[in-house]
Amino acid sequence: MSTSKKIGFLVTGLLMLAGLAAWGLQLKEGLVLTHMRNSYSWGLYVATLAFFVGNAAGGLVLSSMIYLFGVTSLKPFARIGALCAFANVTAAMFAILPDIGQPVRLYNMLLHPNLVSPLVWDVIVLNLYAGLSLLYLYLLMLPDLRGPLARIAIKVDDPAAFSEKWAKRLAPYMLVAAVGIHVITAWIFATQGARDWWNSAVMAPDFVAAALASGTAVVLIVCVLTYGIKEQYTAAYRALATFIAVAFFTHIFFMYNDFFIHAWYGSTEALDVLAITFKDYLPAHVFEVLAPLAGVILLLNGKVRKSGAAMVSACILLVAGIFVHRFLLMPGAFDRVPLTIAPLGTQDMQWSMPIASGQYNPLGNTFVTSWQYFPSAIEIAIVAGVLAYVGFLILFAIDRLPIVNAQKEST
Amino acid sequence: MRRGMVIDLEKCIGCRSCVVACKQHNAQPPGNWWNRVFTPGSHRHLTPPEKGEEYFLPVHCQHCNNAPCEKVCPVKATYRTEDGMIMVDFERCIGCRYCMAACPYGVRQFNWEDPKKAMEKYEYQQDYSYGYPEEFRLDGRLVYMPVRFKGVVEKCNFCAHYADKGLDPACVRGCPGNARHVGDLDDPDSKVSKMIRKKKGFTLLPEKGTRPNVYYLPPRRKEG
Q1: Whole-complex ipTM
Q2: Of the candidates B59, B100, B118, which has its C-beta nearest A353's C-beta?
Q3: A179: which of A205, A262, B126, B181 lies 20 to 30 Å off by Cα?
């Protein structure tokens, strides 16, 4: 095992342990260890769920481009696509686990599911996608399951043809399931009339667009790191870079389209909500747009694509921007309490009805109309642990399974 | 039968007796308040706002007919009783707080820590306990308990434990101005239905389409 691999395992392993320890502490003391409170009831964990769900789009992009749209140059990367999909969709589920106040009662989801709750649909479709991407990965690896791995290979006459045939057959279902996880995750938010920031018909399409950009960038990072820059991959990298760019610009269009409509009409409530992102969180908003934009401009440059380090950095810029985009789901929804009224006899002001924060404060007010949220160290440690899990799983799978094609070693 | 409430803003003097009665009777842990009263437009309660008329607004669970909290709950811990009250089953709740994101009235509260620990931390008198002392089950479901579990959501349960004994909610009984009334909204001849009809009852955030079972009667304009 190479030194860099060892360091990778060590770092991700330690971060995972730290995250687990932080979760253990939070289980013991309660979610009081987070910086969420009654008026700001969702935070980093839910934003991270949305982030990882989006990143899981990579599997769909690869399988559809290869088997539905015939971009054969991407074929060597199909397994990486399926692996990244599985790693990210399971990470999404791990990210939401610490947000649950009574995780031992999760069996109630099976015993008493409420079939109109988007959260129930999301749990179903996330598990379905995790299962499908694992199955897909297995099918793609089938021709290369040799040596000790031969034990888990199903016996077929021609594994290569079998793998090809079934990968092609499964591709449309992967597409439906993948679009499903993004749309339904977006519906968790978009269905909520209580939060003007979320309650938009464009949220689901925008979620898909942002997911296609970040999910593909995650796959591209792993491809460049494993296969490196070689002549035979030029076309594949160009295809992925173009796809990321188209997806990102679609996302920007959807996002600003929504802002524009609300800003033009100019209702007080809508302007109040927009002000949270455009005033209070302006640096974060600038980052969520400019960092991915810089990444996309770099990726579209053929010279940049000749350097592995430059490509990985460009992808990281994009993924980091999308992460901030997912985090910005929260302030617009929770920074101000939703019950605002124009006091009788006035119409030029919106007054917020204070909420009990859930934390008795001997020095200040228990009732609040806004809550400045920034994740606590515990929240950050847990999320870092989940991120480390994604890295660990991908490293481990590439180390132990035939993810990277045998032909690579021969060249 | 649809159990509803009418709050007459003309009669509300902003004394917050209902808030305190609710907090005490329902054993709410430190930092959580199911009920609250403020002065709209003013940053300080009982102080006239710079613009507009001074009046006082009590807000707690609106027991909506189209309740987003009920619809989002993944495990049906939040549910509707036959007479239209929205309840939280403390034994069923998984603590995902989706209902808190879904409620436009901000009436839902979470047990961020163990209530006993919180009472110690905030130096409540040792062994002091308050509120209705026993658990109460409605149709077998735990809708009231004096000491809550850590990590579950709570909110106004329309004092189901008192309704069971034929008593009005604590806030209604604690109101010195008789501003609060409980009755059957399905019966056009009930006291509450008549009050809503005759005194132009309204609901909060009608644009959200939640159709609350809590109605407010507008305050009359003061003379002079």
Answers
A1: 0.94
A2: B59
A3: A262
